[in-house]
Structures are given as structure tokens and as C-alpha cells.
Amino acid sequence: MTAKPKFVEADRERLVRSASVSMPRPIVIRLTKFIHVPRRFRRQVTNTFLFARDGYQCQYCARPASALRPRESLTRDHLVPLSRGGTNSWTNVTTACSTCNTRKANRLPHEIGMQPAHAAAEPHFVHLSWAVRRLTPIQEKYIRTFYGAETVAELEALR
Asked: How far apart are alpha carbons 142 and 146 in whole angstroms?
């Protein structure tokens, strides 16, 4: 027997159909059983999520993406370069404009006198979701319920 998810809220105007079943489109689902996801299967570092985590601005010179010149772009910088044993993990990558990334090259930030504005850390998936797409008021209600008003305030600051 498999566990069934419980639909807490559904959009009754939009239906989800299969070959034999038609039901309202779920908006909020309550899981009846939690399955731990091993760390290696958690959210991978992608430029989209990395840039969102860092507020779409270079962590070295603080220029936002909108202030970059035509041939510049935001890039992924490895704090400890891959050539020196660094990894492609949340705690070892930061957002850099192409100019700063080229200047840093394969050196450590302190070797060239460059320090990122914020420490590299793995963000909470809720923060990433909020940063790359806007959550609906219904989703915000449940985030407030389960993660608290402080988390909602942090997410609203990302807008």
C-alpha cells in the first residue's frame, strides 16, 4: 500500500487529468510520510540559483547585473579554484562579474586582496524558490505557518 498525499488546498477551476481520473489541481499538498533526501541529492549549484542567492550582484565590486557593460556578465567564481582542489559546492562559489573573475584568476581571494561581500553558504530552498520566482499568497501563508514570520520577512526583502 502506498501513502497518499493529502490535498490541503486545490484550484477547483483547473483540473488535472489522467487516463482514468480527473481532480482539482493541487496548490498545497501535505505529505503524510517524510523521506530524508541524502545531501548529494539536494539542490545543486546552478548559476540561476547562485546569482539569486547573491542578489544578482558581483560579490567583489558590488555592481549589480544591470550595471555591467555590454561585454561583461555575471559569472561563477570558485573561492578555492578547481585547479587548486576547490569544489563546486555552495560554500566554495560566489557570484563575480567577468572583470573581477578574470582579475582573481586561479588565486585565493586573500592572495589578491579581494574579499566577497558575503560568506558563501548553502541557501535554504525556500529562499531560492522565492528569489527566482515569486511565490503565491497561498504559498506565503504556509511558509509563514511552518517557517515563521522571520523567514517571510527575509523573503520579502529579496523582492
From this structure: 6
